[in-house]
Amino acid sequence: MPAVTIRPESEGDREAIADVVERAFGSPAEARLVEAIRTSPEYIAELALVALVDDRVVGHVMISRCALLDGDTEQGIVMLSPLAVDPSHQGRGVGSALVRAACEGADERGEPIVVLEGDPRFYSRVGFGPAAEHDITLPLPDWAPPAAAQVLRLSHDDPGMRGTVIYPRSFDVLDET
């Protein structure tokens, strides 16, 4: 496989990103989520990354802000969502490379943890583990098994962080489909 280049997304990538996200998920809903995050206050431009092969966008990932609520205490954390790799490039390490690069960027920013909902078979390979083991709860969709709630503790972690993840309003676009 040709070399994969990972860099922050640019405005000129948006159409290609939407196409990759829609093909990866088999639905336009997640492409609408990407746009909703991009126009929200939770958007972190430097943590919205593309993977390129031969100068063509073949993957995309975003990390954006969310909150962790523990009783009356609310802490800012970040969430990785969505991750998309063009079906023709899946199984070649593109997704893993995107996740690692995004999480390294979050760590460099001083973020304590990254949360997500996803397949534990994939995300455990890049360091994520069950959120429940850290007393962190993600409100999952009905179809998602409890193991889909994942967390990666970074170098600025506070081991006492626990609570329920509060999704930003941009994720409401998924309920509109």
Helix content range: 10-25%
Sketch the topology as an H/E string, one letter per element: EHHEEEHEHEEEE
Major pleated sheet:
9 strands, mixed
In round numbers, the mean pLDDT is 95
Oligomer: single chain
Based on helices, strands and strand pairing, what is the structural class?
alpha+beta
- Write down how many β-strands occur, each being a DSSP E stretch of 2 or more residues: 9
What does this structure look like?
- With 177 residues, the chain is an alpha+beta fold.
- The protein is 23% helix and 35% strand.
- The chain is built from four helices and nine strands.
- The protein has helices at 14-25, 29-38, 94-108, 120-123, and strands at 4-8, 43-53, 56-70, 73-85, 113-117, 129-130, 136-137, 149-153, 163-166.
- The protein is globular and about 50 Å long.
- The N and C termini lie far apart (36 Å).
Write the layout of secondary structure elements.
Elements: E1 4-8, H1 14-25, H2 29-38, E2 43-53, E3 56-70, E4 73-85, H3 94-108, E5 113-117, H4 120-123, E6 129-130, E7 136-137, E8 149-153, E9 163-166
Parallel strand pairs: 4-5, 7-9
Antiparallel strand pairs: 1-2, 2-3, 3-4, 3-9, 5-8, 6-8
Helix pairs in contact: 1-2
Give the key terms:
alpha+beta, single chain, globular, 9 strands, 177 residues
